[in-house]
Design brief:
The chain has two domains: 7-76 and 172-273, D-Maltodextrin-Binding Protein, domain 2; 80-168, 3-Layer(aba) Sandwich (D-Maltodextrin-Binding Protein, domain 2). The chain has helices at residues 10-21, 37-42, 57-61, 107-119, 135-143, 187-205, 208-214, 224-237, 248-260, 270-273, and strands spanning 49-51, 69-75, 80-84, 100-102, 128-130, 149-153, 160-164, 175-179. The strands form two sheets. It has a five-stranded mixed β-sheet with strand order 5-4-6-3-7, with helices on one face. The protein is globular, with a radius of gyration of 18 Å. It is an alpha/beta fold and 275 residues long.
Length: 275
């Protein structure tokens, strides 16, 4: 299961494709607003979830047990872009001040965006930040003329990307795969990890057109050229660099981001979350 459906998670989508091509039965679904990933994993309804190390922190602070263990990195950079109505080759973050921005209000995307704004010398409080709902609603509102900028993952059909949030801040443990600790003892888990390693490396190095073609069935309403362009953006950004291990320093940087926004009560130990 994925916490949201996006080409940003191409390593997972291509892994599913590899497993299915090898004769394995793999189901795929997207988390609904009324569902909680830790509960689905705890109750055995989902084996593996696309999530983020940060998803454990609030439940830990509420005393929720058991929580999933995060075992593999997907992306080591934020995958969102600021999209404007016209190209802007000299964009700087100060230009957001006094403007209206449709921002993704998911906890991690919003915390990362705030960090990037401040990291690049702009004043968050001088930006008119609007919550227009889910990504599709945000893009529709932007297309209808609302706001000066919109905060989206690729691909997008409205406007022009003027800056990458991920390229504007340090690398970070952004998204990862998690499961129950007991599931890590199974042969099914081991075979998944083997396929995932292969898929992530292939997605990182293969031509974007080939990666797009391999996962086209996951995006039936997205034009092939837009999907290819999205994958090329993420390859160029370096989202899928490194091994599948979740580096300790990138975990700590994610904590730095959340701590700066007051979004964690304390610094959670790496070995409590990653394994």
């Amino acid at each position: 299961m994925a916490s949201r459906h996006s080409a940003f998670y191409s390593p997972l989508l291509c892994c599913i494709g590899f497993l299915r091509d090898g004769g394995r039965e793999v189901t795929y679904d997207v988390l609904r607003p009324d569902q909680r990933s830790y509960a689905l994993i705890r109750d055995g309804e989902v084996n593996i979830m696309q999530s983020a190390v940060s998803s454990n922190w609030k439940p830990m602070e509420r005393g929720v047990e058991p929580l999933p263990v995060h075992f593999a990195q997907i992306n080591q950079r934020d995958g969102f872009f600021l999209v404007a109505r016209q190209p802007d080759s000299v964009f700087n973050w100060k230009k957001l001040e006094g403007k209206t921005l449709l921002a993704d209000h998911g906890l991690q995307p919003l915390v990362m965006l705030k960090y990037a704004v401040r990291h690049n010398g702009a004043d968050w409080d001088k930006i008119k930040v609007v919550d227009a709902g889910a990504p599709g609603q945000m893009e529709a509102a932007f297309s209808a003329g609302t706001a000066d900028y919109v905060h989206l993952q690729a691909p997008f059909t409205a406007g022009v990307a003027v800056v990458s949030v991920g390229a504007s801040m340090p690398a970070v443990a952004f998204s990862s795969l998690c499961c129950a600790r007991s599931y890590q003892k199974t042969e099914t888990y081991r075979s998944f990890v083997s396929a995932y390693k292969r898929a992530r490396e292939w997605v990182r190095t293969a031509p974007a057109e080939e990666v797009a073609a391999a996962q086209a069935s996951f995006f039936p309403h997205v034009a092939p050229e837009l999907l290819t362009a999205a994958i090329q953006r993420y390859q160029d950004l370096g989202c899928w660099e490194g091994s599948i291990d979740i580096p300790h320093d990138l975990y700590e940087q994610a904590l730095n981001v959340f701590h700066s926004a007051g979004a964690v009560a304390w610094r959670h130990r790496y070995d409590e979350v990653v394994g």
